[in-house]
């Protein structure tokens, strides 16, 4: 290893302080949760006002009434899950991608379950409570009611999305295939709209309801078109990102260096990630998420990628000058989430990419930042970490070798016979007083997270990015 690498000082930016940004993010999180519950309570109130509770007195009418309530709640949650992944900047900054993805899955599966309940109960109710008549009744509803055929097609799209989102199914799919299939959720949501507006009396029976639903649908569509389509295209044209060079970093790992125009106006922080599309390669229209592996300096960007699929493997063959389409920046694994002067940065494998960027981009003095670097064979960015140690007083602890046991996150060459938690507390005795940034494969990160919790680290001071989808 050599210490000849020069590490630039963090780029100073005029931005609100950590405390004010933390308060703003907390306010956005609270407002988002309240807005979701307000929507659910409002449609429930309208259901009650229309006699939904009274209809429960009869068998067939009760089935239909409960089906209507399930459909109303499913519609609210369906729009909410789209908004959660629409890349709305305020939500991205407040929640971060990991929390948004978890919320999206929870809301999405709940919405789908309620939608199934809605279909079953409505059909059963229209069949006068007779199970035998359900198939023919479903056929009649599909053929005779306005918008129902489109709704069935939309439901099938959502079924495909939900099935491929189950963990067992995701393990059998390439990321690129899963991402493409997941886009059908937008088609499914769009196909459901005519049925709701043409056949649903709870959607159009008053001016207030019509305004509410049209506003909700329009706002959701605007969020997707603005943040997932418009802004990425604008940034791509404005910044004209191009590949400058591709540098091997180890077995199956490369760093891609990029240049462009006005990169100081990207508003990106160390540790964040973009969704990248590299023109000219097969499947370039499908985006892949890669974190920055160096702090942004306003002139260039760098990502470091391990070959784990067709998309990532093809980056080694990129040529200088290749045009790049980007969405982002995303994620709270950044200085924005910081609330303490001292920090601990813990990463494994190519998860060291954002850790390396944070080690450069965070503001700290000698002894205030420590890195735990978990790797199996060769450490990433070895020379760069040596430079950071010498120039900025960063402390780096290597955790080499295969994991000691299936339930251990440490390497065999790390800590002798001591338990993982004991070793962690020995290395960082004031851990509970720090902000901790964690990045690595999900199973490994879950083990680290458990030990951090046992060490007394408050949940709000743990900032996580995992390699999961």
UniProtKB/TrEMBL annotation:
Span of domain FAD-binding FR-type: 236-336
Subcellular localization, as worded in the UniProt entry: Membrane
Transmembrane segments: 26-48, 68-86, 106-127, 147-169, 181-199, 211-231
Keyword Transferase applies: no
Keyword DNA-binding: no
Coiled-coil region(s): none
Keyword terms, alphabetized: 2Fe-2S, FAD, Flavoprotein, Iron, Iron-sulfur, Membrane, Metal-binding, Oxidoreductase, Transmembrane, Transmembrane helix
Cofactor(s) this protein requires: FAD
Membrane topology value: Multi-pass membrane protein
Name used for this protein in its record: Ferric reductase-like transmembrane domain-containing protein
Originating species: Nocardioides mangrovi
Taxonomic lineage from the root: Bacteria, Bacillati, Actinomycetota, Actinomycetes, Propionibacteriales
